[in-house]
Input
Amino acid sequence: MKGVELRLIAELMKDSRRSDRELAKIIGVSQLTVTRMRTRLEKEGYIKEYTMIPDFCKLGYKIMGVTQAELKEPYKESEFEDIRKKTSEIEKNNPHASLMAVNGLNHGKNRLFITFYEDYTAYSKAMELTKKLPFVNVENIETFLVNLEDKTNYRLLSMTEIAKHTLKKNNI
Output
């Protein structure tokens, strides 16, 4: 990926509301070049979506949970479709604000969830539902809870620092 493309992506991570004209001035290319690059980067999957990051507290979420769990093993790829269906059904009847649910590895755990909760009661209910899933090893679940109202938090979710790091690691 070219430096100018990385600069465009970094600028969009910082603020995706800006026009192609504004972005062109910032990165030093024409508006047409920005429009073409953006379109190509979207088609190639470098840009997955445009969004904003809200103040979660103002939306009524007081807790963020980072939960690690262990899925019972082994699962074949074909079985994951059934797992997704069962999980989607539970989520449909018990909606919650989930930021991520991904596979990974950490001391016997292989699934990570990042979710937002209105309060501790909502978190507890979600954990009870999680423990009812037939494919989760309930003895191997750990959650780190973040109080989103804590004014001493250093940095909450932001794309700006990732944008800066992307440019720095690529010497741009």
